[in-house]
Design brief:
- There is one protein chain.
- By secondary structure, the protein is α/β, with parallel strands linked by helices.
- It folds into two domains: about 1-295, 4-Layer Sandwich (Metallo-beta-lactamase, Chain A); about 320-435, Rossmann fold.
- The protein contains eleven helices and 19 strands.
- It has helices at about 45-55, 75, 105-110, 195-205, 235-245, 260-275, 325-340, 350-360, 375-385, 405-410, 425-435; strands at about 1-5, 30, 40, 65, 90-95, 125-135, 135-140, 145-150, 155-165, 165-170, 210-215, 250, 280-285, 290-295, 320-325, 345, 365-370, 395-400, 415-420.
- A seven-stranded mixed sheet has the order 6-5-4-3-2-1-14.
- Helix 3 (about 105-110) links the parallel strand 5 and strand 6.
- Helix 8 (about 350-360) runs parallel beside helix 9 (about 375-385).
- The radius of gyration is 22 Å and the shape is globular.
- The mean pLDDT is about 95.
- The structure holds zinc ion (ZN) (2 copies).
- One zinc ion (ZN) binds near residues 70, 72, 173 and 230.
Length: about 450
């Protein structure tokens, strides 16, 4: 399997003398398998030079599989310049997460409307197909590819490619689910010791990979002021990848404000941290033109999806019960969910919530932690004690970001634990991920 980086920048293309080493094009990675499958991860401006190479090298038809993590601009902007799509005998199968804001085709057509671009999507001569993906295991051009949601203010999928006896995992545009990575009283550095279920799921998804390509846009110092923007820093990546037994990590989605010297400094610090943890993890900052050939190894194992039956949820209308004794949050959350077409009911106390759940079972409960009377933990425990609500998804929404509270939430049985401040898109993406898993 061959991997080549064509775009390593996040947010906006950043050409110029300060980015010649690590590159200025936005996200795009090419993977070719030994059987000849062409997989393109994200279609940022790096897709333009990739397209030129494909056109120069290929005499016959080009059959590209384009896997988009999500459709933010820096991940699709290169698509209108993907020249193979302008040739009749070529084909492009485009994959992306099933989102809440229209189909993949509609979103891609939007950026090619006549106001923005001279050629509309429907006018492209190549055979283009669109595939809205759910979480789970897929076969794309004969390659086994697992998909799992990331934590980003949009529905965003990470991809795990298993082919040729190697595993490569693409995890771009993701931020830690929790400020604290490790659960108190457990030895740090092991997947089982990860505090938040979301981070543990993330670690399992990359387990034993030969190469993980991971978002590391910010430094640990920058991260607190960029929280909820959906990006990681190298310390999270190095720790979680080490715990997951990953061989090599490529840090990517470099911040447009970071020049080559700055990125090189991040690389040095990330390597020092990896050495300190000493699981043998190799770390580097991805750069444009970086090419590697991965050879099979005996430890490559297929990923087992934790929720094997993934169905499309885009057509379903879900009922969400929001429980909060603080009117402002209740209104904010209710409005956000109604805008996403959920049927929403609300309760202002734990006991009222339990009575409502007994009368009409919702698909998901969004639950405040600290409430007068029965608090969120007590409600969760009561739900878990009854067979009919044992598996009812509970998303706890709270200002309690500390380790003991997070631990208490998961110990009580919450499905997800979302802390304030949160952004509405991030919150609704987490709601959708919870529902997709039920
Ligand atoms: Zn991005
Ligand atoms: Zn994004």
């Amino acid at each position: 399997m061959k991997v080549r980086f064509w775009g390593t920048r996040g947010s906006i293309a950043t050409p110029g003398p300060g980015t010649t080493r690590f590159g200025g094009n936005t996200s795009c990675v090419e993977i070719t398998t030994n059987s000849g499958a062409l997989l393109i991860f994200d279609c940022g401006t790096g897709a333009h030079p990739l397209a030129a190479k494909l056109m120069a090298e290929n005499q016959g038809a080009i059959n590209a599989n384009i896997l988009l993590g999500h459709t933010h601009w820096d991940h699709i902007q290169g698509f209108p310049f993907f020249s193979p799509a302008f040739v009749k005998d070529n084909s492009a199968a485009i994959y992306g997460p099933e989102g809440s804001h229209g189909t993949l085709q509609k979103v891609l057509a939007g950026q090619m409307e006549f106001t923005y671009f001279p050629v509309e999507l429907a006018q492209l001569p190549a055979a283009i197909s669109y595939h809205d993906l759910t979480e789970g295991i897929h076969t794309i051009d004969g390659v086994r590819i697992a998909a799992q949601f990331l934590d980003h203010p949009a529905m965003t999928l990470g991809y795990r490619v298993e082919a040729d006896g190697v595993v490569v995992v693409y995890l771009v545009d993701h931020e830690p689910f929790s400020d604290e990575l490790w659960r108190a009283g457990t030895p740090p550095g092991h997947i089982e010791s990860i505090l938040h279920d979301g981070d543990r799921r993330h670690a399992h998804f990359m387990a034993n990979a030969d190469l993980v390509i991971h978002d590391a846009q910010y430094t640990p110092q920058e991260y607190p002021s960029k929280k909820t923007w959906g990006h990681s820093s190298y310390d999270y990546v190095v720790q979680i990848a080490s715990a997951a037994g990953v061989r090599k990590v490529a840090l990517t989605h470099h911040d447009p404000g970071h020049n080559d010297d700055f990125v090189a400094e991040i690389e040095a610090k990330a390597r020092a941290l990896a050495d300190q943890i000493s699981t043998g993890l190799e770390v580097f900052c991805a750069y444009e033109g970086c090419e590697m050939t991965l050879v099979p190894n005996a430890t490559a194992r297929p990923f087992v999806a934790p929720d094997p039956s993934q169905e499309s949820v885009s057509e379903r209308r879900f009922h969400v019960l929001v429980v909060d004794d603080y009117p402002a949050t209740l209104t904010l959350v209710t409005q956000a969910l109604e805008q996403e077409n959920y049927t929403v009911s609300s309760a202002t106390s734990g006991s009222q919530a339990l009575a409502m759940i007994e009368a009409l079972m919702p698909d998901l409960v969004v639950l405040d932690y600290k409430m007068r009377g029965m608090d969120g933990l007590a409600v969760t425990k009561a739900l878990r004690a009854r067979p009919e609500t044992q598996n009812l998804p509970v998303l706890m929404l709270t200002g309690m970001t500390d380790e003991p509270s997070t631990r208490a939430g998961f110990d009580a049985g919450v499905t997800d634990y979302v802390t304030k401040p949160f952004s509405i898109p991030q919150f609704t993406a987490r709601v959708r991920a919870c529902l997709a898993r039920t």
